[in-house]
Amino acid sequence: MAGPAWFSWACGCALVLSGAVVTADDPTHLTAEHVDTLHKEFDFDKDGKLSLEELHQAATDMRKRTAVREMKGAMPQFDTDGDGRVSRTEFYEMVKPGPDSEDALTQEYVDKLWEASDKNADGILEPEELTRLYHTESDESLMAMAGDSVLKSIDTDGDGTVSRKEFVEDGGDTDANFDELDKNNDDKLESSELVHMATERFSHEQEMRELIKIADSNLDDHISFEELMAARVNLHEESAGHLLHQWAGHFGGEL
User: Where is the signal peptide (predicted)?
Assistant: First the structure.
């Protein structure tokens, strides 16, 4: 459920990513130089330590970088005439309504995607407009659509909300995540609450808390370079460690 997979699934197109990719399951690829670069990049106040707030900001920045990278990879698939922009015709060729089935895209949904993307209503998507589809948290209308999509996928009784049973038993998630999303404590989740699961922000926030817990050896709620370096190998089986590997790949050309 988590992550922007709702859109890549909707498009039905593979993202062609360029550049070096760090292998997530091999900790030897995250070198001291990688750790040093990540630590310096994310230490926004330059105090030599990473706070949870800085890690959250780093995650936001990296999602934006990833969105641009994914857009550049997908652009040739959309932009079939090679003019550097995506026309309505090209968009609809890539994002087609499917056959009549539970998971199929409807014409109405595709129309809404186009309208939400074409902000200036000029019938053309510039690269920055297409990027929003890969960074949905930057656009309220796309976020609302994503929340509705998540709701539809796990609202098995069709009452317009997601119960704890639907979320945990049918959706395969956890009680802890349900409680974190249930902001008004009414023991059910609405689209506006589920929207946080429609991007990677929700999982990234959890992973950054996990990173602090694992790497903060002196329990000061911050991570020094030495602490991050010491935790490097222990992190390789954790989701937070996998995320660091991915982020290190973005800086591969700079190292």
Answer: 1-24
In CATH, which of 1.10.260.40, 1.10.3470.10, 1.10.238.10, 3.40.50.300 is domain 140-198? 1.10.238.10
| Residue 94, number of CB atoms within 10 A of its CB | 16
> Quick one: fold of 69-134?
Recoverin; domain 1 (1.10.238)
Least confident segment among 93-107, 115-129, 163-177, 229-243: 93-107
CATH 1.10.238.10 in the chain, residue ranges:
69-134, 140-198
Q: What global pTM score does this model have?
A: 0.73
pLDDT at 237 (0 to 100): 80
Residues 147, 140: contact at Cβ < 8 Å?
no
CB 238 within 8 A of CB 214: yes
Identity at 12, one-letter amino acid code = G
